């Protein structure tokens, strides 16, 4: 993740050795980062005797001690450290488990997240009580993974796995859905608090925000691409096939169907790879909406002088991308699972140091783990992984300590398809991690859905995506402006990595390729940021007060005669505040008497105090308010007076609320919303509302606008027109 974990552990072990408390230790890490660990340990503490137990360290036919002798060398040294990979730990367990290690350190320790995997069971048998796991993503899919990692560090602390699942994992998962009951939400919160408190003493968590001053700016955007005609036809054809029906009826494994849909999204030729791979037309970019966008992005980055990382999930798709990159004339390196471990470090070093190499083509699981690729300042994630940490690790190859330039990351998602569903599950899993490790009181966005949801082709929203609709309530909105003129960047700050260049790329993609919309992924990740939640809560409170004031004001106006001017703040009587208000007494008096009536209002009565009802009798002030002569008023009259006085007090409180500048501003905005909806016939679709108000509404006011809109209108689904905002009856003018 680029937070300096390797250096921290190297210095920690050096401190132990310097104080005389060090014993021979073992460090287990992915094979890709063995060389990096060796370099850092030698750099930060040369007295260590570091021995690497891995085949990649053999050079040609040079003699090398046996594995048993290497382990013995470390064991007999006062400064010995054994570096090995997870595979070697599993294969050489007989020698490694027999040693009483000082410390056992697992780098990228989420490798043991499967509690029943062979490597997990072997790692938990290491003979030492001093155990450390280094991981940027301790929870990747579900809470069982957290249990597995924690059980290595502190065996038995979280009980047995069945008990943990029943008492913690299941309640927290169920309560995290948007359609969970109040009891389920409360139970999830309390369980998450207990779990967080249990693990907190043994968890040292550092985030990129902690080292933000040492890192350049990062921009991460999701580009929602459309399917080509060929892709859409294939997608619909497969959804209508008997195979999908068998999957939905539990007669066939769903993973095979999901794999086919993902291949269609990446490139339809992947379905017939063996038949067409040898032909020239295989992998033609024009048949894949995402590949067209990806090549366009690479061309822009090349022209602007950037270096790029291109990640995809499979070697088969990487083959197609490699063909396209070759045809475009880009210089590149490639690394995937078939690349020899010994050659990987050389490729990384050459890419970082050679300015002539423009793009590094990588599979996500090989190129996204542990390596340092700060030579690049642009990252493109071609397809999403079910595991959010896989994509997260990939993007962190460039945005890490040592990077000097601003970093831009593009995620390509085919809109409405299986890929957007995968992306949603990524976000849900990230929120689950935050719920346990940081804030148990998380905002809920996603509903519990079954496998039928995966085998659908989503609606084409007007200029938006399903993801944008799910997160439409976020502060500031998610939409990325596609007009470079709308991005305010000083000329001196807008270099090759400036915001204006990124905006120009997006506009070009939007106009010339199949990009439907672009969202700011960073805002989604920060959806549960306490500051953003406080802003939304404050906006909701102001909106409720403004709506209440508007509702009372309209109710007061309805009871006034039609010939009485509405209160403007200086003139008029209809709807004027009852207490402490300055009104136009001439207009007020003129409306007090029926033609030919000898009744007159007291000179000191306010406009609200002397208003007549439909019977023409003064409601307040004077001795004629509902009584005759000097007779005592009846009980019904007294109750009527009491109700009206209570209404007057409520109106006064409403008036006081409107004196608050924030409430007054919200009140005016709510009136504008009501007026717009009335002019539109009492209803309007979401797109029309946004188009009308967006030009005059600052982004900072977006949360307040959303809350006000929800107060004065209700959202309904129209089969033909999509989502419609309908003005609530309380705000419909009926005069």
Structure, described:
With 735 residues, the protein is an alpha/beta fold. The protein has 28 helices and 15 strands. The chain has four domains: 5-209, Tandem AAA-ATPase domain (Rossmann fold, 3-Layer(aba) Sandwich), CATH 3.40.50; 220-228 and 288-417 and 457-528, 3-Layer(aba) Sandwich (Rossmann fold), CATH 3.40.50.300; 532-591 and 605-620 and 634-659, no CATH class; 662-731, Arc Repressor Mutant, subunit A, CATH 1.10.10. A seven-stranded mixed sheet has the order 8-9-7-10-11-6-12, with helices on both faces. It has a five-stranded parallel sheet with strand order 2-3-1-4-5, sandwiched between helices. The protein has a three-stranded antiparallel sheet with strand order 13-15-14. α7 runs antiparallel to α8 (161-174), α23 (530-558) packs across α25 and α23 packs across α28 (702-712). The relative contact order is 0.07. Mean pLDDT is 76; it is low at 470-497 and 579-631.
Instruction: Say what the CATH topology of the largest domain is.
Output: Rossmann fold
| Low-pLDDT ranges | 470-497, 579-631
* CATH class label of the largest domain: Alpha Beta
Query: Helical stretch count?
Result: 28
- Total beta strand runs: 15
Largest pleated sheet: 7 strands, mixed
- The domain count comes to 4
Residues in helices, as a percent range: 40-55%
Query: What order do the strands of the largest sheet run in, or round the barrel if closed?
Result: 8-9-7-10-11-6-12
Nearest-integer average pLDDT: 76
Taken from the alpha-carbon principal axes, the silhouette is: globular
- The CATH superfamily of the largest domain bears the name P-loop containing nucleotide triphosphate hydrolases
C-alpha Rg (nearest Å): 34 Å
CATH architecture classification of the largest domain: 3-Layer(aba) Sandwich
Task: Report how far the terminal alpha carbons are from each other.
Answer: 64 Å
Q: Return the structural class.
A: alpha/beta
Subcellular location: Nucleus
Region (Disordered): 589-610
Family: Belongs to the SNF2/RAD54 helicase family.
GO cellular component, one term: nucleus
């Amino acid at each position: 993740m680029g937070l300096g974990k390797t250096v921290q552990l190297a210095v920690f072990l050096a401190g132990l050795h310097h104080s005389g408390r060090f014993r021979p230790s073992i460090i287990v890490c992915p094979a890709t980062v063995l060389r990096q660990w060796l370099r850092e340990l030698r750099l930060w503490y040369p007295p260590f005797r570091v021995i690497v137990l891995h085949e990649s360290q053999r050079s040609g036919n040079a003699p090398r001690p046996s594995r048993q002798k290497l382990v013995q060398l470390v064991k007999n040294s006062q400064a010995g450290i054994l570096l090995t990979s997870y595979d070697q730990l599993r294969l050489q367990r007989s020698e490694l488990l027999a040693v009483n290690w000082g410390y056992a350190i697992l780098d990228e320790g989420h490798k043991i997240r499967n509690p029943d995997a062979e490597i997990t069971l072997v790692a938990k048998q290491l003979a030492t009580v001093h155990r450390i796991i280094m991981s940027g993503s301790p929870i990747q899919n579900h809470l069982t993974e957290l249990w597995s990692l924690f059980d290595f560090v502190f065996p038995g602390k979280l009980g047995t796995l069945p008990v943990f699942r029943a008492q913690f994992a299941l309640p927290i998962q169920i309560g995290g859905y948007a359609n969970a009951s109040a009891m389920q939400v409360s139970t999830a919160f309390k369980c998450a608090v207990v779990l967080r408190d249990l693990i907190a003493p043994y968890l040292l968590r550092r985030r990129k925000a902690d080292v933000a001053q040492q890192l350049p700016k990062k921009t991460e955007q999701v580009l929602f691409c459309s399917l080509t005609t060929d892709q859409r036809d294939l997608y619909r054809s497969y959804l209508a096939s008997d195979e999908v029906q068998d999957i939905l009826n539990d007669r066939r494994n769903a993973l095979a169907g999901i794999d086919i849909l993902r291949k269609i999204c990446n490139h339809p030729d992947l379905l017939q790879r063996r038949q067409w791979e040898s032909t020239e037309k295989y992998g033609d970019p024009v048949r894949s909406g995402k590949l067209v966008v990806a090549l366009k992005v690479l061309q822009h980055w090349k022209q602007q002088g950037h270096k790029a990382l291109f990640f995809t999930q499979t070697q088969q798709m990487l083959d197609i991308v490699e063909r396209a990159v070759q045809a475009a004339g880009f210089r590149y390196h490639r690394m995937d699972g078939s690349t020899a471990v010994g050659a990987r470090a050389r490729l990384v070093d050459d890419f970082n140091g050679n300015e002539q190499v423009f793009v590094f083509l990588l599979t996500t699981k090989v190129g996204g783990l542990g390596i340092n690729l700060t030579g690049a300042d642009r990252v493109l994630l071609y397809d999403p992984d079910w595991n959010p940490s896989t994509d997260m690790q990939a993007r962190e190859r460039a945005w890490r300590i040592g990077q000097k330039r601003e970093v831009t990351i593009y995620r390509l998602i085919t809109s409405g398809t299986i890929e957007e569903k995968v992306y949603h599950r990524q976000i849900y899993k990230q929120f689950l991690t935050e719920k346990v490790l940081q804030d148990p009181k998380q905002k809920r966005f996603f509903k519990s859905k079954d496998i039928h949801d995966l085998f659908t082709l989503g609606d084409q929203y007007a200029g938006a995506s399903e993801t944008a609709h799910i997160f439409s309530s976020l502060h500031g909105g998610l939409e990325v402006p596609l007009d470079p003129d709308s991005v305010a960047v000083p000329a001196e700050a807008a270099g090759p990595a400036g915001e204006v260049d990124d905006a120009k790329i997006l506009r070009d993609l939007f106009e010339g390729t199949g990009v439907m919309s672009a969202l700011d992924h960073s805002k989604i990740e920060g959806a549960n940021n306490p500051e953003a939640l406080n802003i939304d809560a404050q906006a909701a409170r102001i909106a409720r007060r403004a709506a209440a004031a508007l509702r009372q004001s309209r109710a007061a106006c309805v009871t006034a005669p039609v010939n009485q001017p509405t209160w403007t703040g200086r003139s008029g009587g209809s709807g004027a505040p009852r207490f402490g208000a300055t009104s136009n007494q001439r207009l007020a008096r003129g409306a007090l008497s029926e033609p030919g009536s000898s009744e007159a209002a007291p000179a000191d009565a306010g406009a609200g105090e002397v208003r007549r009802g439909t019977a023409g009798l003064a409601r307040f002030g004077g001795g004629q308010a509902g009584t005759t002569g000097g007779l005592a008023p009846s009980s019904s009259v007294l109750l009527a007076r009491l109700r009206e006085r209570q209404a007057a007090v409520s109106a006064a409180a409403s008036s006081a609320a409107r004196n608050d500048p924030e409430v007054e501003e919200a009140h005016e905005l709510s009136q504008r919303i009501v007026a717009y909806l009335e002019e539109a016939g009492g209803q309007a679709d979401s797109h029309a509302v946004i188009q009308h108000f967006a030009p005059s509404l600052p982004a900072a006011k977006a949360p307040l606008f959303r809350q006000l809109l929800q107060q004065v209108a209700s959202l309904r689904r129209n089969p033909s027109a999509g989502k419609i905002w309908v003005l609530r009856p309380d705000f419909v003018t009926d005069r």
